[in-house]
Amino acid sequence: MAIRDYGMVRxxxxxxxxxxxxxxxxxxxxxxxxxxxxxxxxxxIVPLHIKTGFEDGFERVAAWADQALGLEIRExxxxxxxxxxxxxxxxxxxxxxxxRLRRGHLYSLAHEMGAASIALGHTRDDIVExxxxxxxxxxxxxxxxxARVSNDGRNRVIRPLAYCPAELVERYFSxxxxxxxxxxxxxxxxxxRALVRGLLKDLEKDNPKARASLFAALGNxxxxxxxxxxxxxxxxx
Length: 237
Ligand code: SF4
What we know:
With 237 residues, the chain is an alpha/beta fold. It has one domain: Rossmann fold, CATH 3.40.50. The protein has helices at 2-5, 23-38, 58-69, 80-85, 94-112, 124-138, 166-174, 191-206, 210-218, 230-235; strands at residues 14-18, 44-50, 55-56, 74-76, 117-119, 147-149, 156-158, 182-183. The protein has a 6-stranded mixed beta sheet with strand order 4-2-1-5-7-6, sandwiched between helices. It has a two-stranded antiparallel ribbon with strand order 3-8. Strand 6 (147-149) and strand 7 form a beta hairpin. Helix 6 packs across helix 9. The two termini are 31 Å apart. The structure holds iron/sulfur cluster. Iron/sulfur cluster binds at residues 52, 54, 84, 94-95, 98-99, 183, 185, 187-189. Iron/sulfur cluster (SF4) binds next to helix 5.
């Protein structure tokens, strides 16, 4: 279990759960609520919804969280939709900017609220896709750690679903009997991510364990076989 392996939740932690209201974030919220009920330690769950301005159906999800989980999801209004509409450079990834803006809001709020960590709903598949995207488009090997301290050192980010295949999360979601918030963003999806998803599907036709193997590789690195120059290596230590 990723939560145990990475020591994600500690006694008395206040954990902010970032929710778009999409399937992954609702499953994350439910899993953490179930864990809190069963765990021998006490921790607090604070669900936050950072509004981009593109969502539809948040009230329905908020009512479900209230009735099924006994939790109030705090809604945070932002001007993200307006900022994105002003991006005119087609070379710039609007989705990357969008996620940076959402993260900025989350980090500031978490700091203000004295939260121990921010839980994000990324799945194993998101991590593998990010790994390929970074390798293929930025020339850098990296992914998303299941638990890490943010670059400015102020926040701890945890990804409790890091070991869960997206398909499993999707199946679990179907038992929750709730329609997710729909995203009416005109951009809809990141083209490069869609391309990488297609690539992974093709790979799995030949090797059904391709995604699982790529994820395992991220925790099993043969450093000596990589092409890191010694001068660069020295600077990073
Ligand atoms: S599709 Fe729209 S809402 Fe989603 S990350 Fe991209 S810009 Fe943001």
